[in-house]
Every structure is written in C-alpha cells, then in structure tokens.
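Hi support team,

I submitted a single chain yesterday and got back a structure, but I'm not sure I'm reading the token output correctly. Could someone confirm the output below corresponds to the sequence I sent? I've pasted both exactly as they appear in my results page.

Thanks,
R.
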Amino acid sequence: MRIFGFLSILVGLLVAFGYPTYHDAFSNFEIGNYAIYDRDSGFRDQTIWLAPQDGPIEISFETSTVSAGTTESALAPIMLQINNADQSVHSGSIDLAPTVDGATLQFEIKNLPITESALHTFVFSSPGLPPTQISIITMTITGIAVTMNDTLPMVGYVLIGLGAILYLVGGRRKAKRSGKAPTGTQSKTAQIGRRADPAPTKTKKVEKPGRKWGRGDG
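Hi R., thanks for writing in. Yes, this is the structure output for that exact sequence:
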C-alpha cells in the first residue's frame, strides 16, 4: 500500500507542478512582432519562416490609438492572404473591433495549423479606402498558442492527498506487524539455527534375583 501511495504522490506532483511549468516554458511563445501598416507607406507584406512544431499559431492585430468614437464600421475592410511555396494557408478579412476602453482596435486569428516548414508570405490589401483613422497596425504571431487546462493541477493535488493517506496507513500497518509478540507465545522462527535438546532416555531397571533359602541341590 505504501508503494501505491508513493506512486500516487509522484504522479500528483508531476501533474500539479510539472504540467504548468511545461506549459509556461514550451507554449505561447512570441515568434515575432511586425508593423504591417502605417499611414505614410501603407500595407507591408511580411515573409516569415514557420514550421509545424510552431503550430497551432495565433495571429493578433492591434492598431495604434484611434480617434474617439471610431468603430470598425468606419474602417475600410482589410484582407489577409497567407501563402507558402505550395499552397494558400489562410484567406480572410481582418475585422478590427474596439477594445473595452475604445482606445485601440484588435482582431485575432486563433488555432491556425502549420502543415510544413516553409517561408509563409502574409499579403495585406484593402479593396476600398485605406483606414485613414489609423496610423499604424502591428501583427504579433504566437507559437503553440494553447490554453492551459486548469483542471489538471487540481487532479494532481487530489492525487497527492490520496497518496499521502495511503502511505501513512501502509506505514501504520507495517509498524503493527513488526511489534513484539504477546507474552507466553514464541515465534515460529525463534528455534531456527538452534540445536534441539536431546529427548530424555529411559534407563531400564535391572531386577536382582530373589534370595533362596534352604539347602541347595546336591
């Protein structure tokens, strides 16, 4: 039982602390930050090396401070085409929306897989008028953009508690079994290695012949 308790504690520690540490160290890392638009030069296409181990990626767009009261409906549509050497990876519009404070506009593309290691070209265009209300738009690419499962650390804590209980109960039972035997009893292994006392031998009593009285045979 103590072995099961120890294993439960070990697995619990890995799940409760190892998983969050691994998630923080090897996921949600920034691949790069790029200025894709400014008011003077317009849109700038970007060529970026991406590999399958970087995916899924998240692409977020954010504008500089905009004029008060600016909404997404006041902006001309922005189109994005992502291509590699062989095929189109993504095609769609960037629908910038005001943040809570209304100071900037943001948009995100989530869970975009990368199927091959290659240079990917990000092509931007605006079919209508350029978004004159905006001075600059930046694009941030995040690699292995995954959300941590918050329930797994809780499962780890439960396993640690269960393992501690099993370990303590197993230790108490072992202590009881290793205690002294009750008075008047002797362990079966106590005689191992000892030479047994020889059994007592009975001596046969020699009877003396009876005494004869009278004359003997002549």
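A quick pointer for reading it: Residues 151-177 form the longest helix (27 residues). Let us know if anything else looks off.

Best,
Support desk
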